[in-house]
């Protein structure tokens, strides 16, 4: 009888130990990180750029879809940033130097149409701009 009681006690203790370990493992699992939108990633890069003036987030967010559309249509960075394309990052009250404009373009392409990233980087490398 004593053997049976001892075995039952050991099994009960083992079950409690395993249950406790299970709880610890559940607590130890990493929680999923918050998803950062492509707009937020793009704006984070934009905030690192010095602009001549203060562009609004809305003005900056309007650019990547336009750039992606132009790239989808087969246009080059040079075309987009020339007066013909009219997509240089500039507003009525703000602007940026060309090196920063390229940084902004790459950030926008990286987040909004990454399938064009290597072509854009290649073009900028060929012209010595990147």
Description:
It is a single chain. With 130 residues, the protein is mainly α. The protein contains 6 helices and no strands. Helix 2 packs antiparallel against helix 5 (98-112) and helix 5 (98-112) runs antiparallel to helix 6 (117-126).
Task: Give a brief description.
The chain has six helices and no strands.
Shape: globular
Supply the helix-strand structural class: mainly alpha
What fraction of the residues are assigned to beta strands by DSSP? under 5%
According to DSSP, the number of beta strands is 0
Ends distance: 83 Å
Uncertain spans? 1-11
> Can you count the helices?
6
Q: Major β-sheet, in short? A: none
The helix/strand series, from N terminus to C terminus, equals HHHHHH
- Amount of helix: 55-70%
Q: Nearest-angstrom radius of gyration?
A: 28 Å
Which whole number gives the mean pLDDT? 84
Oligomer: single chain
How are the elements arranged and paired?
Elements: H1 2-28, H2 38-46, H3 57-72, H4 77-81, H5 98-112, H6 117-126
């Amino acid at each position: 009888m004593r053997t049976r009681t001892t075995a039952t006690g050991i099994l009960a203790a083992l079950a409690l130990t395993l249950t406790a370990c299970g709880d610890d493992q559940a607590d130890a699992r990493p929680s999923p990180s918050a998803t950062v939108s492509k707009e937020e990633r793009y704006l984070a890069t934009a905030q690192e750029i010095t602009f001549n003036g203060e562009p609004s987030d809305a003005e900056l967010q309007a650019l990547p879809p336009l750039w992606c559309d132009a790239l989808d249509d087969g246009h080059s960075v040079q075309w987009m940033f020339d007066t013909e394309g009219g997509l240089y990052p500039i507003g009525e009250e703000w602007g940026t130097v060309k090196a920063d404009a390229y940084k902004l373009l790459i950030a926008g392409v990286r987040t909004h149409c990454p399938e064009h990233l290597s072509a854009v980087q290649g073009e900028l490398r060929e012209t010595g701009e990147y």
